[in-house]
Amino acid sequence: MEVFAIIVIFFSPLALADSLFNEGDYFNAITEYKRAVYLKDSMNYALFKIGLSYEKRGKYDFAARYFGNLAYNSSQPEVVQHLAYNLVQLKKYRQALLVLEGENDNLSKRMRAVVYGLSGNFDKADSLLNLMGYRSPHYPDDALLRYPSYIIPGFGLFLLGEYRRGVLSLIFTSASGYLTYYLFRKKRYPEGIVALNTLFLRFYFGNIENALKIKRQKKLRYYKSLLQQIYN
């Protein structure tokens, strides 16, 4: 029986390759899948599994190359989706969108929304998800985060639920503003100018920039988590 098993594995490397893949030994699985391609044994399947093995190993450039070759000769949605996934991991969002163009299955549409989201086009991403019945997290508009913060520093951070940062921003901006006022009132103009530029203006405008930055980070985290949900 052992001799028979060895003969089967030698002439059908796919059996060994699949076994290695299932065990998580992707490095050696790639070698065996490549041997299957050389022997012309279920070539498309072997090429797909090579791409998938590279993907599992985090070698997204190699994975994209194999899935790209397959996608050129095959219009299977699974191949296209994996190609798009690897392009996203390489931050090649425009290419990923081009690959997904024309794919109308639900998973590809969700993937397209994710790509738009990860590329920073949140309005387009949210719109696509809404059309499919999904609801992405809602955050205040940039204008609502920005303009009230000119009057009450940290207001935008409070709206985002970042209460600790909002309080600190309010305290530091107020304290640096009072220090600047105190120095000018005492006619210590050089020190007042330094305090104005290095402290007050930094905290005053920084609280607005932080609110917009945190909103963007929250949106990106959502789309990254959605990407993992799709492929896990």
Could you give a short description of this structure?
The two termini are 37 Å apart.
Description of the molecule:
This protein is an all-alpha fold and about 230 residues long. It folds into three domains: about 1-55, no CATH class; about 75-135; about 140-220. The chain is about 80% helix and about 0% strand. The protein contains 13 helices and no strands. The chain has helices spanning about 1-10, 15-20, 25-40, 45-55, 60-75, 75-90, 95-100, 105-120, 120-130, 140-150, 155-160, 165-185, 190-230. Helix 5 (about 60-75) packs antiparallel against helix 6 (about 75-90) and helix 7 packs antiparallel against helix 8 (about 105-120). It is elongated, with a radius of gyration of 27 Å.
Class of secondary structure makeup:
mainly alpha
Biggest beta-sheet profile: none
Measured on Cα atoms, how large is the radius of gyration? 27 Å
Tell me what portion of residues adopts beta-strand conformation: under 5%
Uncertain segments:
1-10
For the secondary structure, the number of strands is: 0
Tertiary shape: elongated
Termini Cα gap: 37 Å
Task: List the main descriptive attributes of the protein structure presented here.
232 residues; mainly alpha; 3 domains; 13 helices; 0% strand; disordered N terminus
Structural topology:
Elements: H1 2-11, H2 13-22, H3 26-38, H4 43-56, H5 60-73, H6 77-89, H7 93-100, H8 106-118, H9 122-131, H10 142-151, H11 155-159, H12 163-185, H13 189-231
